[in-house]
Every structure is written in structure tokens, then in C-alpha cells.
Amino acid sequence: MLIRHSMTRSPRSVGPDELCRDVFEMFQRNCIRHAAVLEDGELVGVVSERDLTRALPFLIADLDTPAEDTVRVLIGTVMARDPRTCELNDPIDRIALEMQAARIGCMPVVDQGKLVGMVTITDLLRGFADHFTQAGGRAVTLVWTHEDRLPRPDIAALCVVHGLRLSTLFESRADSGADVYLVRLHGKEDAFRAFLRSCEAAHLGVLTTTV
């Protein structure tokens, strides 16, 4: 399954010059815990509820205090700069591992450098749950050995070209160093066969196919 299937689209964003207090109140109203920080339309950071409460611990207890009586701390001073990002066709299992390793709770999703979504741990868990409840399609095991020093094949793009729906894309690394892809596809038989031919042309070895 790909990030495009699990992410939150059109996520809320804030500016670096907004007050932390105002953003915290917006988080509370909308039941969210993360927001992208945009400056002139460009992604410059991510701010979380934890960032806000760490910077202004009195926020939780003193939301009734007039704004002018609180410290005027700006988002730009507490946000995480240069955040890790992912793309629409990234597999959710790989992004889940990256988020776990980096100990982060969200990752902005970009397309050609522009913010198009946000994926959180909750989104990923929902995506995995959806995957395990889905049925049908064909499972394919593909291998890329790196031997020809060619660019990494874009399996998701090949699916789009042949009109197939990609519901699962798991990646792993074999002991030999080859990349192994477990793919589940949905679509017509002739499109599936054309996809396999394209994989072979892209130097992807086809190990197994099952219904």
C-alpha cells in the first residue's frame, strides 16, 4: 500500500510568524496534533502539539488567560526545521520504519516539492489495517539485483501506465543485497501480463505470481 492511500489530504498548515498560543487553540478545536509550517507556499517546518506544550507549558492550564498576558512565542522558534518528507508513491511500510527510526509522529507528503498531504502514525496504522482486510487481486514477488547499474525501477509508475491498482508494495533487502518487492495488484488479466513484461524490460526479476 502506498502513502497516497493512507495520508491526510489538504492538511492544515500554519505560518512561522503565528503565535504558538493561537496554533495550540486551533489544534484543540480541530482535534489535531501536527501541522505543516509554510512560508510563501514553501514547506519550512513541522510543528506538533508536543513542541507547543514544551515551549509554553502553561498553555494547557491557562487557556483562559488573556493573550496579551502570555509570552508571544512564534511558531518559527519552536518548529522542527527541514522536516523529513515522503512522496505519494512511497510504500507505507518503509515510511513507518523511517518514522520509527527518527522517532517522529508525522511526515509531510510532497509532490514535486509542494505539500499535498500529511501522514501520521495513526494514518499508517489505519493503512495497515485496511490492507489486511482487503482481498482479491494478484500477488507478485519481484527482485532487483542492481547488477546493471540502471536507475531503480518505479513499480508504482508501471502500475499506473498499465491501468492497475496497486494495493500493496512491501520492500525488503535479501542477504545477497538484492531488493525484493512484494506487490498486490488489481486489474484486468491483459494489463497484468503487460505489467510483467514491463517489469522484465526494466530488469526486474519475476519470482512468483499468485491469485
Automatic annotation (TrEMBL):
The highest taxon in the source lineage is Bacteria
Q: Which PROSITE patterns match?
A: CBS
Q: Which Pfam families match?
A: CBS (PF00571)
Q: Which InterPro entries does this UniProt record tie to the protein?
A: CBS_dom (IPR000644), CBS_dom_sf (IPR046342), Diverse_CBS-Domain (IPR051257)
This protein's record includes keyword Thylakoid: no
- The residue ranges of the CBS domain are 7-63, 79-134
Key words of the record: CBS domain
On whether Transmembrane helix is a keyword of this UniProt record, the answer is no
PANTHER family in UniProt: CBS DOMAIN-CONTAINING PROTEIN (PTHR43080:SF2), CBS DOMAIN-CONTAINING PROTEIN CBSX3, MITOCHONDRIAL (PTHR43080)
Name of the protein described by the UniProt record: Inosine 5'-monophosphate dehydrogenase
